[in-house]
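Exercise 7. Given the components listed, write out the predicted structure of the assembled complex. Treat all entries as one system.
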Amino acid sequence: MIEIKAIDKSFGEQDALRNVTFSVGEGELFGLIGPDGAGKTTLIRILTTLLLADKGTAKVAGQDVEKNYRQIRKQAGYMPGRFSLYQDLSVEENLHFFASIFGTTVATNYDIIKDIYQHLEPFKTRRAGKLSGGMKQKLALCCALVHRPQVLFLDEPTTGVDPVSRQEFWGMLKKLQHKGITILVSTPYMDEAELCDRIALIQEGEILGIDTPQAIRAAYPHPLWQIEGPDRYHMLRFLRKQDFTISAFPFGESLHLATRTKMPAEIIEHALNTADFQPANIRQIAPTIEDCFMDRMGQPARAQTNSYAR
Amino acid sequence: MPAKHVIETRELTKRFGTFTAVDHLTFSVSRGEIFGFLGANGAGKTTAMRMLTGLSRPTSGQGSVAGFDIHREAEQIKRRIGYMSQKFSLYEDLTVRENIQFYAGIYGLSWRAVRQRTRALIDELQMQDVARSLVGSLPLGWKQKLAFSTAIIHEPDIVFLDEPTGGVDPITRRQFWELIYAAAERGVTVFVTTHYMDEAEYCDRISMMVDGQIRAMGPPHDLKTQFDQDNMNGVFLKLARESERS
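Answer.
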């Protein structure tokens, strides 16, 4: 449904995308995972024909993004990262407007938006600008869907949204996927990667890896340990100086330590004990997508200075 | 002699017309504590924070921040706190050095102290090479570190961080938390809001706001036990689902 081959894009001196290649199959829910400035928006804007690549080719629904951009615009839905509906039109006016510019009506395609629009119906006469964040997000999704697109592009739909609304939103995406819509969604939240069929990890314009979340986790190359205990901040700094350490990062209430070789937990425990730390629990764990992302970013914490500490 | 509690509120309430945005908030935060202030969008976090930073007058209830009364001494509070939000208050068309000097200056440091602190901070942040570059040209992660450092350049009793880490990569996000730890170790109290639930677990203590009220408060580990969840995301979902507002 989406085919991207060797796309380059730069803005002046700044390389936004470097040699990006991947494809998304029909009916897939595909995640583009990376921080701000990674190139997610640039790539989505190229695929939605709003921006031209410097090099490379891309096809959406079988059509070339440059030559056949008009066809793509009929077949793609796009929810930009910034709220871009008409703030001074009401909920239903926005929806009817988007339907009419695509030459259709809300009634024709109501089945596709029904589940989501039901949440908005009580507020249909309210101006879009007066909606809460979660409601704006749902309206934007309805407007992106009202022409029944084959493929839907969503640029960071859950940024700045609380965990409850995020969970709800992903539930809506799954339902749309079951209706046969191919979805490409970008997000800076690593935990959302697990909800996608396949993901591309992207950082500074380059793809760090493409696969299913399971396969990306399985490919993590180091033994990984979870360590709990008091005084985690000093424990972290101590671990980074050890020879067995590849990287050490805080993860919620625990630390994640990647080591060079397989070894018994006692070695780590002993090292910590000799420095007067009392680790409560050291156990080997499976990596999260966030562990994988940080490892692939290729700047192990060990190599970094501790200049931020006093 | 500094009080043990840097923030203390009793029955703090803010109404807008008939709408009670913050509903009888009672809590305290100790010196050097990292306190996570969580809640769904619209739960009342921003309103509460505006009262604590002296930007909004409470409708009723009591509160003190850095030993000053939030009704009568809002101006003194503003001098004793630091504030950083996701929309950094750095000037993009000033250089790194100029931004630091500007903040040190408006917080009332002497010219001598401004020069000393500026030099020390540039060294600390290892930004010697970019000291003369415009802030607008820096990567997001660097801006965040700089914004945090300027927010505490006057060595405030407490720093308020309003969703400070949105959008940055996971390594930069962690480096930012290490800065927070280092500041807390020096005795700066850190009051932080975030939507990243793993970050909530870096806090010493967390409060969870639902519909203007604090529904749960305690160390992350205790809350996970109390609500029988593996992580803070689970705790958050369980509590926020009770909301009648959203």
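Discussion: Residues 5-240 of chain B form a domain with the Rossmann fold fold (CATH 3.40.50.300). Chain B has one domain: 5-240.
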